[in-house]
Amino acid sequence: MENVTDTIAAVATAMSSSGIGIIRISGSEAIEVADRIFRSRREDFCLADAKTHTIHYGMVYDGEEALDEVLAMVMRGPHSYTAEDTVEINCHGGVLVMKRILETVIRNGARPAEPGEFTKRAFLNGRMDLSQAEAVIDVINSRSEYAMRSSVSQLSGSLSRKVKKLREDILYQIAFIESALDDPEHISLDGYEEKLNGLLAPMVEELEKLLRSADNGKLLSEGIKTVILGKPNAGKSSLMNVLVGEERAIVTDIAGTTRDTLEEQIRLRGISLNIIDTAGIRETEDRVEQIGVSRARAAANEADLIIYVVDGSRPLDENDRMIIELIRDRKAIVLLNKSDLEMRVSEEELAELTGGKTVLSVSAREETGIDCLEQEIEKLFYEGNLDFNDEILITNVRHKTALEQALASLRMVQTGIADQMPEDFLTIDLMDAYRQLGTIIGEAVEDDLVNEIFSKFCMGK
Ligand SMILES: Nc1nc2c(c(=O)[nH]1)N(C=O)[C@@H](CNc1ccc(C(=O)N[C@@H](CCC(=O)O)C(=O)O)cc1)CN2
Ligand SMILES: Nc1nc2c(ncn2[C@@H]2O[C@H](COP(=O)(O)OP(=O)(O)OP(=O)(O)O)[C@@H](O)[C@H]2O)c(=O)[nH]1
Ligand SMILES: [K+]
Prior knowledge:
With 461 residues, this protein is α/β, with parallel strands linked by helices. The protein contains 16 helices and 14 strands. It has helices at residues 30-37, 95-107, 117-124, 130-141, 145-155, 158-182, 192-222, 236-246, 283-286, 289-302, 318-327, 347-353, 370-382, 397-418, 423-441, 447-455; strands at 8-11, 20-26, 38-39, 54-62, 65-75, 86-92, 111-112, 224-229, 252-255, 262-268, 271-277, 305-311, 332-337, 358-361.
């Protein structure tokens, strides 16, 4: 392992004007470095004498220049986030002030931290395992309440505990087989395969359950890709505005990767939706029909959810029939819009044409029926999954891959038993499963992977 005793520093808060800014220093010389620039009103006081988890009023100096009035917090290793001696300087949250203090800290013996380096140290020092460290970044990046709750649960070790228990059980069986093979006179393997089979079934089930949660987990962390389809003037933009308006404060506009799609991100009942407007479909009328159709089809193909908006005040036409074809085998909700006008299309008619999709009457203009839409979306994606207290959600592709491989190995053990393979053969696959699960919590993972994971963190984390 690399040397983790040098002292690092970074601004831990955002580099923009705010009430308070925090400069974080961690490492074996953290307290010494801080003492070089911090002066209390009491002449004889220094942070080196301070008890852990205490906070002290004073000034930060660059030489004889007073930089700012601050509060300095001391946390002594191993009782800190990084498990090292840590000082946090709470200064006024001006960009220049924070920069000057950080520079001064660095001139006095710390070096600039890399992104994620504090958390990396927490991991390398055994304060948290890799899945917990990964949860830290997920908490910061979570875009919906559900995603946040799931990340916090992982941070507190829910996934780690499950993985560790599985590994323990697997390791016990490996050890048993090996000691039996070593000492056949005293430990018998008669009937053991049957017993092992009985133990494997619930483990396989557990892994399958975790893997099933990954589908929801992905939607949860990345947002549900929602495409709104409908012929021109059906009310797509109006609907989008109503949905976006619900949570105006946290709306962000993300220019899509493709030139012609604009993605709006909204939060709805704790779920994050990335809503994509299909501008292309408009072209079916006045430009080359094929382009419009194929763009709509492409958008629809990538969607987790399609919202099909029908103008209920006009009879269905060719455009509608085309869209109905597109959504046939997809997760879709049909909105019968303009319910404030006289209706020329009925819910029943649409339900039949779409092969039994949920049809909801709404008015984007009067903002009625939107509640039902939200309820329906929640039902489609989170039915029976709303309680995350004991439900672990896999949101990380790395974890998913490891679980898949562990599952494959355990299935090989089951096949091995069915094929009456010798016991030492079974231990090879058991060991593989054990190792794969270990990578989730960071056992025996390559330094490169560790570095890559932490490099995606923010500065100062
Ligand atoms: N100012 C500040 N706020 C923060 C953090 C921080 O490092 N500094 N955190 C991180 O970025 C998070 C909190 N995480 C932390 C985790 C452990 C310890 C800590 O001192 N643990 C000791 C003592 C625990 C106790 O007294 O029970 C320990 O584990 O021994 C501190 C913060 C969020 N807020
Ligand atoms: N009466 C009524 N009019 C509506 C409703 N929703 C939308 N409209 C009107 O229908 C027209 C088209 O609405 P838009 O939201 O622009 O429709 P669109 O589907 O985005 O249209 P394009 O961008 O052309 O594809 C506008 O004049 C809206 O005011 C509704 O619920 N009731
Ligand atoms: K429009």
